[in-house]
Request: fold
Amino acid sequence: MKPLIGILGGMGPLATVDLMEKIIEETVASRDQDHVPVVAWNVPQIPDRQQALAATGVSPLPAMLEGIAQLNAVGATRIVIACNTAHFWFDALSAASAATIIHIADATLDVLTQSASHDGPVGLIATRGTLEAGLYQARFEAHGMRTLGNTDDEMDALFTPGCYAIKRGEFDVGGRLLDAAAQRLVDRGATKLVLACTEVPIGLKRIASALLPIAVDPNRALARACVAYWLQAGHDA
Reply:
């Protein structure tokens, strides 16, 4: 079977396009045919992940399982999920998929462990669901990396409204709120930031945040993992 990347997207749709663009950016190519083949299930009607984990909305799992089934049906050989919070259901999605799903936190850890060492903690800018599930913390701490997250007040005043502003297309407003949430982590000692919500890098880039040089973008890490898989599998195909 020829290698084909499948993207479970729509959470939100802009994050899916952002991942696809980064896959292209991370590929060394001289012609169209050198690029990574990708198929995306970019269906925004998947129920809200944050609301589901807060018990104020329905589970997105059935809709995500439909997307996984569709990606398998068209022949995806690796699948990635363009949403951090959706990885709360990673085990159930993996169990339903013939194609291996690459975990976004594993891809991010690969980038961090390849970069220069740093002494301070890693600031995680993420939804409550991502933080409470420990999707990043356990992996990072196993490699000796301490982590910081925003307080409940910061989540309510900065992160959550910033995230939903990006989803509404209010990029400047959202970017400033998310930048302020990130700055709180730096103020408490974070020397590296992991933008562990796919809306965050979009917002920070829009306002040209001064924090970007110390930030790691999991969506880009995921793109690099896709390219690495394609190069390895493509040579064998």
Summary: DSSP finds eleven helices and eight strands in the chain. The beta strands are 5-8, 38-41, 78-81, 100-101, 122-124, 147-149, 192-194, 215-216.
